[in-house]
Every structure is written in C-alpha cells, then in structure tokens.
C-alpha cells in the first residue's frame, strides 16, 4: 500500500471548491461520464490503430446508484489506468489543476462560470470520499484502487477487478443526498449526456408485470450516440430534421427551415440551427440554442459565442474549439470565437439569401414570421445588414412584398418631393390609419406597413442608410405637405377670418388626456376632408424611440401633439366662416375696433420707447405700455368669449371635430355619447 500527499498547498482545498462552485454542483456527473466516454473512445482509437489487440466487447458506460451505501458509481470498459497513470493523471495533473484554478480565481470568485472544466475534481463537490477502482487495458496490468476523502491525502492500493476499465465510486455527501435520487440523476443525464457518442446505461429498462414495475434485462440507454448534427447532410431528409427538432423542443411549433453547419477548418464546428416562427415577443425565444463540446452538453447560454440576434434561433452547436473555461468577457474578445461568430452569421445570411432566390414565393409567405429576426439582425450587426439588405422585404398596404431596391424603384418617380427627397410613406396600423392610407393611394402613392415590434428603430436605421430619403407616417401631415411637389396654395381667407375660424374650433375641442392640439387653417381643395387630425412625425417618433432607448425619458413624458387642420376650401368650413361672420359681426365690431385702436397705440408706444435708452424711459411711459397690453388681452378675451359663445351653438363645428376625432379613434366616453345624441338629432 502506498500513501502520499497530493501536491496541494492550501490545507484543505475541497471545502473551498465546494463553496465556489455551489450553484453548479450538478456538473460533476457530466464530468465523470465524459471521462468514462473519453476513456472508451481512447480504447477504440487504440484498437483502430492496431495497438490494442484484445476484444472490445460491450463498451457501454454504466451509472448505478446504491442508496444503502450512499454511492453513485460510474463504470466504463475503456483504457483504464495503471498505478503510474493514476499518479500522473490524478495525483499530479488533476490536482495541480486545482492549484491553477485557485490561483486564477482567488480574487474573483464570481468570475467562475458554470462550465469550468474542473474534470475529475468536480466529484468532490458532492462527495465526502471518492474511489477509483481501475485496471488498465495493457497486458498483465494489475487492478488498483485509489481513494481520497477530501483532504489532500490519498491512498493507493491493490484491488480486485476482473475487467479492464474504471469504476469511479462517489460517496455522496450528506448535504447532497438529492443526487442519490433516481429522478435527479435521470434529469442530469438527460440534460448533459443525451448525445454522448458512447452508449450510457442508467439501470435497466422496466416493464409492468402483475401490476408492478419490474426491471427487464435490457439496458436503459439514455443517449443517442449519433445525433443528427454528426451525420452527413446529404443522407438526411426534411423529416429527420423536423423530428430531431421535436426531440429538442417538444413544445414548439414546427421550424420554418434550418441550416446544417459543418466546418473543420480553421476551426471545428458542427451543428444545426433552426429558424423558429418568431411572432411577436423576441424575449420569449432566447436561450434555446444548446452548446455542446464533442457531444457533451455545456450550456444553453450562448451569448458571446454567437451574435446576439442569432440567439433567437434554436438548435445545437457543437465545437471542441470554443474555450469554455474562461469568462464571458474573455470569450467576446477571443479571436477564435469571433471567427466562429462570423462564420455562423455568414452561414445564416447565405441560407436566407438562397431561400429567397430559389423560392421567392415561399420566402414571402414566411416573411412575417422571419421579419423580427432579420430586423433584429440588421439593427445589431452591421455585417448582417450588408447582406440582409438584399433579401429583407418591405410590405405595402396591399400585402405585396418588395426588396429595398425594388421598393425604391417603385416609388422613386412619384414620391420624390420638390427638394429631391424620396419620401417613404408608412402606416403602423391599417385600420386606424385607413383614411390616411386612402388619401395617399388616391395620389398614386404607395404606403408600407411597418407594424412590427422593431419597426421604429428600423425606420431610423434606414433613414441613415438610404440616401436622400425620409420616412413619414401617413397621418403625420396632410399628404400634399408630406410629399410637397410645389408650394402649397394659400388659404383664400383673410387674417381675421382665419383667426376667428381657429378660435371657433379651438374653443370646442374636448380636453383629451395627455394630448395637445394645434389648430391650423389650410387650403386642401374642395374635395379634401373638412377637418383632418395629423400627428407630428418627429415628436411621435421621439416618443416611440424613448421606449427603446434609455435617456429619452424626457420625450416619454411629453403629451402627444396633434394638428387639427381646417380645410378652408371645403364648403362646410366656408359655411362656418360665413355663418360666424354673420352672427358675430355685430358683437365683434366694437371689440375689434377697440382692439385695433389699442394695438395701434401699442405699436406707437413701442416705437417711441424703442428710440430711447432704457434709463430715459419714465415710469409713466412704462405704465402706459403695460396698460395698453392689458387692454389688448382684455379685448382678445372678449373676442374669444363672443366666438366661443357662438361656437357652442354651432352643431357643424361640433360634428366636424367629432368626426375627425372619430377617424383617429380618439372619440370616447362623454364626447362619444354627445356625438351619438347630436347625430341622431341631426338626422331627425
Ligand atoms: N474513467 C477514466 N478512465 C481512464 N482515465 C481517466 C478516467 N477518468 C479520468 N482519467 C484520467 O485522468 C485525467 C484527468 O481527468 P480530468 O477529468 O481531471 O481532466 P481531463 O478529462 O483531462 O480534462 P477536463 O478538464 O476537460 O475534464 C484524464 O485526462 C484521464 O487521463
């Protein structure tokens, strides 16, 4: 018997490891099983090379729980270890690894990420004692038993073992008893070992006999040794991919399409990425890609390894070349990881491009489910935008699809304004903005539908990318001003008429919560609507953007700002102007004449005082100006009162305001009720 001390300086290292890796105790099983698989693969390689001449036999790796003894045993029939090898690989190398590990992380325990390749060591996270009973595959090798109780002391002794290979026996700690439960081990095997390349058996298959569940002779193999991504794409059918997808994500809808990744230079990577239908909420889709290293599950958190937008995809990536025992911030700057990320991005865009080219119709049908993914990609990865701009689509209000170039060609001649800017008209809601879309279409313009979750930032991005182009929502102004072709005709009304008309309508606008209305008079032609509500593009967009970007809270607080545009060419508006003049002229006459007088006085005072230096102006003169101002305000208020009084009784004014509000879905509550009653009165 040999006794020794493992070359560890820290007195008792295991409690430290346990504490550090508390949350990830479960990876011990992955590490033990993959060591057993490695040992088996090594033996197969030796046999292939003719260096091992014995019978390979059954190579199944077995996992057994002995509840009474409180142990889990992982057994393999792989290469096994001689006493020297134990000394070299377990005592020296493995344990010196722990030193490095502690050295690296002693100041920064938080840096330890779950999938640090702790290897054999991780067994001590859950065990009070670990034994290795092993016999090397080499001719005449003797079986040895190594054991260690968690202090840096180990024992090594002769042992009885018929068969080659290793049994790793873990004496599970009292505070880790959960790992002695069958269901827990099943869960872990299913998570980490589902696709290991060597059969892994956990107990026997069971069957129902005489009302009881009993073991059969057949091994309960928990893994698929040849998962789909390891096979040659040419041998696979669509159904194979779909059924593999179902085994990975039993609850998900069928994927739209997939990419089989397969590279061996300059790095090794295989995998299958699936495009799920992404309907509306991108956050629900994340963390579905599983990362494997030689068929061992590592993580489903792949940020840092693939560009963020690709985390919306599903599937598996398997690469031995992704350095997993480093922190995430390191991963992002690692050159190999960057290459992998670039490769995957390129593959994804190539695939989309080829589907687009080969089956435009099918691609268009999938567009609505694909759009969020592609938009996200274009917004977050410049290199993806450069490719995606050729197969990203724009949809018009008729449901027709165009590439960016096609759409530009479509609207170029008709939708360029007098300043040479190309105006892209869009709608975010076909129903709500129906009449605005109609008036744009009446001009022969095309309106795009931008109603997706990311369309607000996409519009800003496109405005930066596309030259001399502007995006404007159809209801942001009257169409002739959105795409101004020539200077707009001035209203025929004189200043007084215009002011009075504005006052009449303004006085009757209902107070809407968080909304602000500016009243404007415009000449929109006899056939145009009498009253139109528009919403300023800039303000609306700033508010929309504030939902996506921090630091724009200021805009989020602002009220919505609308314009109420009165069409001075419309017969009904003309009627209001004439009727107002007829009914208020008498009352307004003295007020207006007084107002004009005061205004003239103010102008004169301003002029004379303007010539003097401030210190030369007397108190008397100052008071005079102030009193004049006051008188003006007074007269204006009087005038407003007369107009308001008049407007109150004018059902055309009320009806026109309400119709405009109704058109925008803003007529609600008491105002809606009043409108309905008034309408019925009018019909009577
Ligand atoms: N079941 C086994 N059969 C034969 N050799 C084993 C077995 N388990 C461990 N070993 C030997 O012990 C060594 C150390 O194992 P450990 O798991 O700590 O590191 P590793 O497998 O080399 O690397 P990793 O950190 O990726 O797990 C292995 O390289 C191997 O030589």
TrEMBL record:
Q: Compositional bias (Basic and acidic residues) spans?
A: 612-634
Q: Which gene encodes it?
A: htpG
- Matches recorded under PROSITE patterns: HSP90
Q: Output the InterPro entries linked to this UniProt entry.
A: HATPase_C_sf, Heat_shock_protein_90_CS, HSP90_C, Hsp90_fam, Hsp90_N, Ribosomal_Su5_D2-typ_SF
Protein name (Swiss-Prot/TrEMBL): Molecular chaperone HtpG
What is the originating organism of this protein?
Answer: Xylanibacter rodentium
List the residue ranges of the region (Disordered): 603-634
Chaperone listed as a keyword: yes
Q: What family is reported?
A: Belongs to the heat shock protein 90 family.
- Tell me the PANTHER family matching this sequence: HEAT SHOCK PROTEIN 90 FAMILY MEMBER
Q: Which UniProt keywords apply?
A: ATP-binding, Chaperone, Nucleotide-binding
